[in-house]
Design a protein that fits this description.
By secondary structure, the protein is mainly beta. Helices cover 11% and strands 35% of the residues. It is built from one helix and six strands. The strands form two sheets. It has a four-stranded antiparallel β-sheet, with no helix packed on it. A two-stranded antiparallel ribbon has the order 2-5.
């Protein structure tokens, strides 16, 4: 999950955000699951091979509350299992 906050009260910001190079592949898709700008919810961004791996997102201008933009990766079963094994996770 990715959280980005724009502290500029006047302007939105479009930025490249570096994400974990080992967990992501170029071409993976991340989807916005929360934003104070409702038009962003459900939109997707594609992971690029930039500074390791990165996504280009636009973060709305701040207002009286903290602006948040969360993204979730859509794992294939294989990618999930590889991550599970690599991190020695346990299922509950």
């Amino acid at each position: 999950m990715l959280l980005a906050i724009n502290t500029d009260y006047d302007q939105p910001r479009t930025v490249w955000v570096t994400i974990d190079n080992e967990l992501h592949q170029a071409g993976d898709v991340l989807k916005c699951i929360y934003s104070t700008d409702a038009t962003q919810v459900g939109q997707s961004v594609t992971v690029a091979a930039r500074n390791g791996k990165a996504v280009l997102i636009t973060i709305p201008a701040a207002d009286s509350v903290v602006q948040k933009y969360f993204l979730e990766i859509q794992f294939t079963k294989r990618a999930f299992l590889e991550m599970f094994i690599a991190h020695k996770m346990t299922l509950l």
